[in-house]
Amino acid sequence: MARIAFEALAHAYPGAAGHALKPMDMVWEHAGAYALLGPSGCGKTTLLNIVSGLLHPSEGRVLFDGRDVTGLPTERRNVAQVFQFPVVYDTMTVRENLAFPLRNRGVPAAAARARVEHVAGLLGLAARLDRRARNLGADEKQKISLGRGLVRDDVAAILFDEPLTVIDPHLKWELRARLKELHRQVPTTMIYVTHDQTEALTFADRVVVMSEGEVVQVGSPEALFEHPAHSFVGHFIGSPGMNFLSCAVEGREAVLPSGQRLALPRAYPPLRGKVELGIRPEFATVVREGGLPARLRRVEDLGRRRIARLEVEGMPLAATLPEGMPVPAEPRLAFDAVRLHVYADGWLAEGEG
Length: 353
Hints:
The chain is of the alpha+beta class. 24% of the residues lie in helices and 33% in strands. β18 (306-312) and β19 (315-321) form a beta hairpin.
């Protein structure tokens, strides 16, 4: 396993306007479980390919344990890779596929066998070890591909590029849990690329959220939910995402376009640019009295909870509807004031107090 560091790292593809990956400095610690999360085209696969050596960055350096590997090819970086679509040898058995990386490195037969059986057990492949891979479905073939990346215990890092795309939805929960358990048992630096927030938040201890080639926040799942550093993080993390209301800020108060005022938990200096108030739907509640007047658009019943879709001063907003509460004819909204955040031009404004 390795400590991976980026120094002034950036990348621009020849002929393209601007950076596909904007300049960054970042460190991934030994044996950490990291996820690169963001929509298509945000730069996460570009960053993963730079780590693996498939792509040479146009700027900056990549260091493994302090050693500059920026110019080294993939085979000299000692990384294991698991791709979106399974890569297996159909003529081999499951056991032979899993043992292939170990046999190539001269691992003794007894040690290889024990390691293969251990990983197969974690991935639910123990009963299929002696079956030919050609007779298996796409789900099980991807498990083999995952296992081939996980079976080595000498790698600097294991890189996963959207590995659950071809896995049936009902098996994804199981496989994510198995990967997490394997990381606990055999600590290895793992980097997981995905556009799915559930996959990222379930798997990773630290999530790297990316947007338009830029890293906008690195943090624990809890930090991303509780304190989004950028409005994109607030919108992208959570279901539904964070609400944003245009406002002005005067000290410890937010002033809405109508002139209504909301108390803030912190005091803010004068802010420039586009100023918004951010609140999670979980901390906005439909009430009968007090709060802000709102217009109900619809109610979404999600089984364990109901979400009210409303408008406040013409701006869309989602809020929790208390269990058993009928929708008021004239709904109003109450906010948990401690959970209110202020954003200026997309970035979280740091208040005082």
